[in-house]
Amino acid sequence: MSLPVMLFAAGFGTRMKHLTADRPKPMVEVAGRPLIDHALGLAKEITPPAIVANLHYLPETLLAHLAPSGVKTIIETPKILETGGGLRNAQPLLGDGPVITMNTDAIWHGPNPLHQLLEAWNPTQMNALLMGVPPAHALEHSGSGDFTIASDGRLTRGAGVVYGGVQIIKTDLLAEIEEDAFSLNLVWDKMLESHTMFGLTYAGKWCDVGHPDGIQTAEALLNTDV
């Protein structure tokens, strides 16, 4: 079984400072490859029926880069729609079923997190399944975590694991949000109330590349043994 993949690639990348003055953040290079190519490589390993990327800031560069890859693109205009609005806007390209969503500003080192999510996905009891990273293995990220994972895998908000930006999520609840632009946190809140939001703990390491210092750390991580 595989599922369509949504790559979030519309952000402004303001934390990247001068590096995103002339390019969108997903085109910033780590180890000689644009960030989006690292994410795309993981996505293609699961042979999804479709890969979709949403674009907004300086979209022409990404359009040209992704054109040979078979990735479907959708430009958010005139305003950026955030994660929830962006996913809902892309639904015509993704279909009505569950979707894998993936941030494009992180480097994973270890097992493919998409494989792990697919193996654990149970649509009869889950509305979402998030990949969490222990804080000690979440490089260039501060804080004690975003979620606590219970013994049965259910999530609550609080210290425990850092959300790594990869999940499987059902899209039914997107229609209940009135705003055009909104965070997936609004959908997660509904799932948390119904106790249908689950999490996994990643077995490898993960690096946030949302700011310039993350590039060197991510490159060093890629050069280490798993």
Describe what this molecule looks like in 3D.
It is a single chain. The protein has helices at residues 35-45, 59-66, 82-89, 91-94, 113-120, 185-193, 213-222; strands at residues 5-8, 29-30, 33-34, 51-55, 72-75, 99-103, 106-109, 128-133, 138-139, 147-149, 155-157, 162-169, 197-201, 205-208. It is α/β, with parallel strands linked by helices. The protein has a single domain (5-222), classed as Spore Coat Polysaccharide Biosynthesis Protein SpsA, Chain A, CATH 3.90.550. The model has no long low-confidence stretch (mean pLDDT 96).
Task: Describe the structure in brief.
The chain has 226 residues and is α/β, with parallel strands linked by helices. It has one domain: Alpha-Beta Complex (Spore Coat Polysaccharide Biosynthesis Protein SpsA, Chain A).
How are the SSEs placed, and which strands pair?
Blueprint: E1 5-8, E2 29-30, E3 33-34, H1 35-45, E4 51-55, H2 59-66, E5 72-75, H3 82-89, H4 91-94, E6 99-103, E7 106-109, H5 113-120, E8 128-133, E9 138-139, E10 147-149, E11 155-157, E12 162-169, H6 185-193, E13 197-201, E14 205-208, H7 213-222
Parallel strand pairs: 1-4, 1-6, 4-5, 8-13, 9-14
Antiparallel strand pairs: 2-3, 6-12, 7-14, 8-12, 10-11
CATH class descriptor: Alpha Beta
CATH H level, superfamily name: Spore Coat Polysaccharide Biosynthesis Protein SpsA, Chain A
Identify the strand order in the major beta sheet.
5-4-1-6-12-8-13
- Which regions have little confidence, pLDDT < 50, spanning 5+ residues? none
Strand percent estimate = 25-35%
Order of helices and strands: EEEHEHEHHEEHEEEEEHEEH
Strand count: 14
Number of domains: 1
Q: What name is given to the CATH topology?
A: Spore Coat Polysaccharide Biosynthesis Protein SpsA, Chain A
Characterize the largest beta sheet: strand count, sense, and whether it forms a barrel: 7 strands, mixed
Radius of gyration: 16 Å
Task: Classify the secondary structure makeup into a structural class.
Answer: alpha/beta
The helical percent reads 25-40%
Integer average pLDDT? 96
> Any idea what the shape is?
globular
Name given to the CATH architecture: Alpha-Beta Complex
Number of helices: 7
Euclidean distance between termini CA atoms: 26 Å
